[in-house]
Automatic annotation (TrEMBL):
Region entry Disordered, spans: 111-137
Domain Insertion element IS150 protein InsJ-like helix-turn-helix: 63-109
Species name: Pontibacillus salipaludis
Name of the molecule in the record: Transposase
Family: Belongs to the IS150/IS1296 orfA family.
InterPro entries according to UniProt: Homeodomain-like_sf (IPR009057), InsJ-like_HTH (IPR055247), IS150/IS1296_orfA-like (IPR052057), Transposase_8 (IPR002514), WH-like_DNA-bd_sf (IPR036388)
Residue spans of biased composition, Basic and acidic residues class: 120-134
Length: 170
């Protein structure tokens, strides 16, 4: 699956929320399944501007258990609960639930040592073929979306700062 910057995710969500385009239409333009767009929209609805700021936490077994209990008692979907608890990848919660279903609470406490070994991305990129015209066009569109998002974000920050200055001067 492609990696998308927080700016692109935000721009896609704004396109959906501003109306005039469906999940499927956006998904086709961006090149993902429409369920991914739905997930991004849920994340944004729960966490607004913080939704796409990357988080890399380590989740305790207690936290994992709370999420699973929430899913079961409140009848939430895995994706909805992931968005609500701001877990960056809903497949992580799916793995927690699967482990819990198989082995109970003990299965949620993985105590493996170390991190998986990282691959050398520079070495991989040297073996890559040049990008096709279509890939370059797609990348160009994504970059334009990112720039548009940054411009909107700058305008929002300036507007927010202007309000604060006015409120402070009263």
């Amino acid at each position: 699956m492609k990696k998308f910057t927080p700016f692109i995710k935000h721009d896609v969500v704004q396109r959906y929320l501003n109306g005039g385009t469906s999940y499927r239409e956006l998904a086709g333009r961006v090149g993902v399944d429409d369920s991914v767009i739905r997930y991004w929209v849920k994340l944004y609805k729960y966490h607004e501007e913080q939704a796409f700021i990357p988080v890399y936490p380590s989740y305790s077994p207690d936290f994992k258990m709370r999420v699973i209990q929430f899913i079961e008692t409140m009848n939430y979907s895995i994706r909805e609960a992931s968005a609500l608890f701001r877990i960056p990848d809903y497949s992580m919660v799916a793995r927690w639930k699967k482990n819990w279903d198989k082995g109970g609470a003990e299965a949620l406490d993985w105590s493996g040592k170390g991190q998986p070994e990282m691959t050398n991305k520079n070495h991989e990129s040297q073996n890559e073929q040049p990008k096709s015209y279509e890939e370059l066009q797609e990348e160009n569109e994504l970059l334009h979306m990112e720039i548009a998002y940054l411009k909107k974000l700058r305008a929002l920050v300036q507007k927010h700062n202007t309000r604060n200055i006015r409120n402070d001067s009263k």
